[in-house]
Amino acid sequence: MSVTQPVVIKKAKVLVVDDDKIVLRAASEILSREGYTVVAIDDAVEGLSAAKDPSFDVAVLDIKMPNLSGMDLLKAFKQSRPDVEVIMMTAFATVETAVEAVKAGAYDYLTKPFENIDVLSLAVARAAEKKALRDRTRFLEEALNFKNQFEDLVGQSQQMRSVFKLVETVSYSTATVLIQGESGTGKELVARAIHYRSPRKDKPFVAVNCSALTDTLLESELFGHMKGSFTGATANKKGLFEAADGGTIFLDVMGDIPAATQVRLLRVLQEGEVKRVGANDTLKVDVRVIAATNVDLTKAKEQGRFREDLFYRLNVISVQLPSLRERPEDIPLLASHFLRIYADKMGKKLSVISTGAMEALTTARWIGNVRELENVIERAVVLSATEQIDLEDLPAEIRSNQKGGADVELFSLAHLPYAQAKKLAMRAFERRYLSALLEKSAGNVSSAARAAGVDRSNFRRLLKQYEVAGRTMKKGEGEDDEFDDGPDTGELSM
Ligand SMILES: Nc1ncnc2c1ncn2[C@@H]1O[C@H](COP(=O)(O)OP(=O)(O)OP(=O)(O)O)[C@@H](O)[C@H]1O
Ligand SMILES: [Mg+2]
Question: What is the mean pLDDT of each run of 10 residues along the chain (494 residues)?
Fold first, then answer.
């Protein structure tokens, strides 16, 4: 047996502005009867602050009003809320104003008095449908974008495998998650991954950078506010918790949010309800909270800067993202991944990273973690003139890590098996040794080889392998030499 479910479509929110109170009331009644949420304003100047309100779908504006014309109001809408569909109406219809209104971005144009009430409801219905379609398209585009981002969460290290497993498991619960990790380790990517794997994936994912706002703004952004609750609160405003209803809110950089906000946050987590700033009533919300921080919250808690009860509420599930230094085995994978992305984006035929460049990448310190690696690859793709990324396409500080050899991060080596670590350290040493030799012999390969007591062709093969020849060897020197393409032992045989 099948039951046909009626399709429930959320009716649009419509703003009507007209100084003529009779028309205003009639229009409100018609539209409310159709099921729209209607806000009626009889003053154009007041209508200006409504033009900043993100919750309207359609606005119906009278053209001729005292103080401010409907055309100016239309322009204000098109500037701050360009996706709100605007219908203009006037008793003094002239073709010129109609053309002017449409040129300024109006969706439709009505003349008063309406021939019948259907004229208004039909125009609003069409405008609302257009707006809904556009919202839907944007939502799908964003969802697709984020979904792709999730599929692009790359890593093969043991640490990242555990993270992936955890993401998989926690996606199905609504438990609060606290993601900790240095800057650029992928906290936001992981938060999105959890959301887009969860049953909430078709609902909003709202990311808030808590440190980017002042204390008062943060409160009003998160929880909303009532008109008049502080200077500048010219209208009621929905908070981000309300906007994320049914979905996930991502509280980013939340290490040092002010004490008062911590209390409010605790209340949302405990009671599942929010109270707008200046409101008496609370509102139920169903929001999953994922928080992230790049400061040690445990320490902040011990120092009394972060509420202990809030800490435990947030830290129900803890995800610790390792720095890139702690997992160098992910670097080649990530580097190739970003190379594919940026080469594609820039339409370049680039798919290889030279051995020397890859070594430099694998042993760099990566203070900025994955984000820094991503930037370095993007830059290299721009710079590269050949079909592969070479050492010289990398920034000096990454390159010098290789040329300087001694800078090989022992810390990162400690995460590799002994044989692999030794090989990397040896190669770093060899590169540094070769550079020093060449510098001493002013770029003369023969005398450098002699000084090292190494067979000349063997020496040249090493220079080639380490890509130091191009920069340090004098042009024309030893051009008759054959490179020895024998087996690459990766070590100097002396
Ligand atoms: N495992 C990964 N696989 C693929 N890309 C990644 C991975 N981790 C991070 N990235 C990419 O690195 C960049 C930085 O990641 P993200 O913004 O998630 O870091 P973050 O930890 O939130 O940093 P911050 O603390 O500075 O806000 C993004 O472009 C992201 O797509
Ligand atoms: Mg982030």
Answer: 36 92 92 92 90 90 89 91 91 77 90 82 92 82 61 85 92 94 94 92 92 84 89 86 95 88 92 91 94 89 91 93 92 93 92 89 90 95 92 86 47 65 75 80 84 85 66 38 36 43
Residue 114 is part of a domain; what is its CATH number?
A: 3.40.50.2300
Residue 466 lies in a domain: no
Q: Could you tell me if residue 414 is inside a domain?
A: no
Which residues does residue 389 pair with via DSSP β-bridges, in sequence order?
353
Whether residue 171 contacts residue 198, with contact meaning beta carbons closer than 8 Å, is answered with: yes
In a domain, 469, yes or no: no
Ligand 1 centre to CA of 54 (Å) is 29
**Which domain CATH number covers 337?**
1.10.8.60
Secondary structure of residue 194 in the 3-state scheme: helix
Within 6 A (CB) of ligand 1 lie 152-155, 181, 183-189, 294, 334, 370-371, 374
Give 251's contacts (C-beta < 8 A, 6+ positions apart): 208, 210, 265, 289, 290, 291, 292
Mutate to test the pocket of ligand 1, among 319, 371, 374, 375 (most ligand atoms within 8 A of CB): 371
